[in-house]
Structure formats: C-alpha cells, structure tokens
Design a protein that fits this description.
Blueprint lengths: L1 E2 L6 E7 L3 E6 L3 E6 H9 L1 H4 L3 H10 L4 E2 L4 H16 L1
Parallel strand pairs: 4-5
Antiparallel strand pairs: 1-2, 2-3, 3-4
C-alpha cells in the first residue's frame, strides 16, 4: 500500500483529472494534490517536513482540498519559519 505524502500513513492514492492525485488517508481524510506537489514532497522531504503537519491538518479539516503548488512555496515557508524560530 502507498503512503500519504503529508503524514506517512497508509493511504489509497488514485490518479484523477487535472494532473493530480486523490488521497484517502485515515489521518488527513480525503484530499487532492497536484502531481508536481506530490513529487516535490517525495523528492525534498527535508525542505518541507515542518510544513507537512500543517498541510495534513488543513486537508483533514477541509472538504476535499486540492493542494496546488510547485513545492518551492512550501520550502520557502519552512525556511522563513526556521529563521524566525532561530531569532526568537
């Protein structure tokens, strides 16, 4: 079985329209993620690891959200958060 890109739980991942996947996860519930974002998360886990819990909660609380990103914005947000935490 495949794993959820946001939380790592076992998940059903289905190829759907608009170059995206639909993910059925016991933790995050059901959401859609673009293939570009999915691949970025898979290839850059250290850049996005701090943002994944936030995305997981957002997916859990929304009605089938579609996560659209090239991944760089997730990494930029993580870098800004880390810099802020170091300065605090």
């Amino acid at each position: 079985m495949k794993t959820c890109p946001l939380c790592g739980s076992p998940a059903e991942i289905t190829d759907v329209v608009i170059e995206s996947y639909e993910v059925e996860c016991p933790e995050c519930k059901r959401y859609r993620i673009t293939k570009i974002a999915f691949e970025f998360i898979q290839q850059n886990p250290n850049k996005v690891k701090d943002q994944l819990p936030l995305l997981s909660r957002a997916a859990h609380d929304a009605q089938i959200p579609l996560l659209i990103t090239d991944g760089e914005d997730i990494a930029d947000t993580a870098a800004k958060q880390q810099a802020k935490e170091k300065s605090d």
